[in-house]
Amino acid sequence: MAIGVFAFILVTVAAQSGRDYIFKEFESYGLETLWIYRDYSRDDPSKAIRAGTGITNDIYDRLAKSCCTHVKKFGVKVYPEDWKVKVRHRNNYANTSVEGVDVSNLEINNETLVAGRNFREEDVRKKRAVALIAPDAIKLLFGKQSGNVIGQYVEVGGQSIRIIGVLAKKDRSLLESLGLTVQGYNINNRVLLPYTLYQQQLGFRDIQEVVAQATSFDNAHTAIREIRKFLYRVHSDRYVFHADSMQEWVTTANQILKVISLVGTVSAIAALLVGGVGIYNLMRISVLNRTNEIGLRRAVGASVRDIKQQFLFEATLVGALGGASGVLLALAFAIYAIVWAGVSLGLSWIVFVLAPLVAMAIGALAGYKPAVNAANMSPMEALRYEN
Questions:
Q1: Whole-angstrom Cα distance, residue 286 to residue 374?
Q2: Which of 220, 251, 278, 306 could form a disulfide with 245 if both were Cys (CB 3.0 to 4.6 A apart)?
């Protein structure tokens, strides 16, 4: 029974901890974030492939001003076909992801700054040579002198760019291990420029991605439909656009976690039932060994109800002791994991209360039949019974 309760608590805590860990990484993208871009894989091979991404600055301006009711904010992302760019600081070089973004990029993608400031509207409008930089890019470019880099300069595309902000480090280790990120792409090895400046460097006015923030997580699909409808109307269906949102990832993660939790819960329930069978056998043997005692109690005035309640209480007590032992094991494991192993656990005190109650209920159910048998014994036969 103790092992069953321990397993039940462990499964519940593991499922919640796994969910918290996964969703913490999901939140690093922004749960309401949408990505819309041209889908080249769906071009008709019998027709000439149209040039460009289908989203220019003019189209983006129209999109941001007149669409859509379920979109809170719009942003952009501009990058070259080979998204790894050689960036230089003095004699240090780094192959870094350079992206052109606008002012709303940080909010939409749930980015934060640990130093400096974000882009301003005039930075984008006037194509100012300023940049935000991620921590791994700082280490590669500045080495030991990677303390305060605000005001320092890096060279991108032959142009000197002043650093005005430092991005906070993001953890994508789980998603990377599952192959859910772009191969070779390091979220912490980036340099962000105003997208107008980067377009000027690259020599085009196309936008590779429209990045948007839905008004809510539940409205993500509706927002995508609105954006795609606008783009198809502008282009008369001459381009095909693909859209991604966090809803698919969240739904998939929830389904996987439910299956894992279900399997673990079934195993824990099986252990509890085995414990219940153990209590049943224990009480059955106890009734046989105490047959004379039962007869004596009946002879001196104990009622059928008194005998039944006695054995039910004992069975429930055994279940409660097993449940309490399981809770103590689970608490010891949780303390070890948190204090010594440094693991963050999603603890819910409800399960620590519910599990021993379930154990007590199973103990009572397992002891009911032996208790009834004990209560229904004939006093005279019970007194004459020999073990």
A1: 10
A2: 220
Could you tell me the two tokens for 335? 């303390």
Residue 162: predicted pLDDT: 97
In the predicted model, residues of the chain with pLDDT beneath 70 are 42-49, 144-146, 173-184, 340-348, 385-387
Mean predicted lDDT score pLDDT of the chain = 84
The rounded Cα 23 to chain-centroid distance in angstroms is 2
The residues, ordered by sequence, that sit 6+ positions from 275 with a Cβ below 8 Å of its Cβ are: 1, 2, 3, 4, 319, 322, 359, 362
For residues 174 and 249, what is the distance between their CA atoms, to the nearest angstrom? 13
Of 365, 380, 254, 268, the residue nearest 326 (C-alpha): 268
Q: How far apart are CA 199 and CA 177, in angstroms?
A: 33
Q: Please name the residue that has the structure tokens 């599952």.
A: 178
Q: Which residue has the tokens 């509706």?
A: 222
| Residues 322, 170: Cα–Cα separation, whole Å | 43
What does the pLDDT read at residue 194?
97
CB-based burial of residue 204 (10 Å sphere; 0-12 exposed, 13-18 middle, 19+ buried)? middle
pLDDT of 352:
77
- Residues 9 and 218 sit within 8 Å (Cβ to Cβ): no
Longest alpha-carbon distance in the chain: 106
Structure tokens at 365: 């159910």
What is the structure's pLDDT at 43? 60
Query: Quick one: pLDDT at residue 178?
Result: 55
Q: Which amino acid is at 167?
A: L
Give residue 302's pLDDT.
Answer: 81
Which residue has tokens 């890019």?
137
Question: In whole angstroms, what is the distance from residue 97 CA to residue 85 CA?
Answer: 6
CA distances from 69 to 105, 214, 230, 239 (A): 20, 9, 12, 23
CA atoms of 30 and 109, how far apart (whole Å) = 5
DSSP string over 307-321 = HHHHHHHHHHHHHHH
DSSP state of 119: -
Residue 223 is predicted with a pLDDT of: 92
The two tokens of residue 91 are: 């004699």
Bridge partners for 77 per DSSP: 209
Contacting residues for 378 by C-beta, under 8 A, at least 6 apart? none
Joined tokens for residue 376: 């229904």
